[in-house]
Write a structure and sequence with these properties.
Blueprint: E1 5-8, H1 12-22, E2 26-29, H2 35-41, E3 49-52, E4 62-65, E5 68-71, H3 77-82, H4 84-89, H5 91-98, H6 103-108, H7 111-117, H8 125-130, E6 134-138, E7 143-147, E8 152-154, E9 157-158, E10 165-172, E11 178-185, E12 196-204, E13 210-218, H9 228-234, H10 241-259, H11 265-285
Parallel strand pairs: 1-3, 2-3
Antiparallel strand pairs: 4-5, 5-10, 6-7, 6-10, 8-9, 11-12, 12-13
Helix pairs in contact: 9-10, 10-11
């Protein structure tokens, strides 16, 4: 590990000032569960400064404001999993956080880091996109708001500038009659990286017809997005096994239209379809 400058502050404006001076030669440290691994694997890209934001109290916490939920980037996966507000009004996000890594990683890793690292297997991103979340990025001179689904360019690359800090994630609470699910498939039951995942939201009217459907696969597309082609199949219909199979098949079809057929397609094509079907079934059953 090469030498670097370690910078920290309890004040956001001081953090932003430090980043403005170092620019792309700085790396932000929050929970560190991704950064420390990166520093060991990529010595050629070693930063001149590590900027520790974990002392900035205004970047931590989960709040409810009117019908909106504000999630601060230093909120750990354990905080998200245990949040009563999120369990009631954004269950799929709480469920996703509960499945990340190990207890130690959940206690240390942050939602902001999960977003900014932009790994294809990030578990909190599909639920947040299904929740139509938007994020606030702040630099020393300006702040801007972006829809989360427009933030990612490709795996490990985002639209954030080197001098910006993620300061807020915001989304509307799900309606009381909406059900939500996150399903993750890995190679084992613990400390597992997602091979595929699905975030699903389903809302039905009094007659049982589907009013709203949101489907976001994880680790399936070049960047995350709602698969509106599959959602349109569901809206206005009553739940059935055949309907959910059709939605799953459509998600699989969209995935292949982006990725083409490769060595992993033989496995992923039926599996993502089955995960979508199971997620939708679980939404109806809960």
């Amino acid at each position: 590990m090469k030498p670097f400058e370690y910078k920290f502050s309890e004040k956001l404006d001081e953090i932003l000032d430090i980043l403005s001076k170092f620019g792309p030669e700085a790396k932000i440290l929050a929970g560190g569960t991704d950064l420390l691994i990166e520093l060991r694997r990529k010595p050629a890209k070693f930063p001149k400064a590590i900027v520790d934001i974990s002392y900035v109290k205004e970047l931590d916490g989960i709040y409810e404001n009117d019908n909106h939920i504000i999630l601060k980037p230093l909120s750990t996966h354990t905080q998200i999993y245990k949040s009563n507000v999120l369990r009631r009004k954004a269950y799929l996000l709480s469920e996703a956080a509960s499945q990340i890594g190990s207890l130690q990683i959940r206690n240390r890793g942050t939602v902001g880091g999960n977003i900014m690292n932009a790994a294809a297997c990030a578990d909190t991103v599909p639920p947040l996109i299904a929740l139509n979340a938007e994020i606030t990025l702040q630099s020393i001179n300006d702040a801007r708001i972006l829809p989360l689904n427009d933030f990612f360019i490709k795996p490990y690359k985002t639209k954030a500038n080197p001098d910006e800090v993620l300061t807020e994630i915001k989304f509307s609470a799900l309606p009381e009659n909406a059900k939500s699910v996150f399903i993750k498939l890995g190679r084992r039951n613990a400390l597992s990286i997602s091979r595929l995942s699905v975030a699903a939201v389903l809302q039905q009217d009094d007659s049982g017809k589907i009013l709203d459907a949101r489907l976001v696969p994880g680790a399936a597309l070049p960047t995350w997005r709602r698969v509106t082609e599959a959602e349109e199949i569901l809206i206005g219909e009553k739940p059935s096994m055949e309907l959910f199979r059709a939605a799953g098949a459509k998600v699989s079809e969209v995935m292949i239209s982006y990725t083409g057929r490769r060595w992993s397609t033989e496995y992923k094509e039926p599996v993502i379809s089955a995960l979508v079907r199971r997620a939708l079934e679980k939404c109806v059953m809960t």
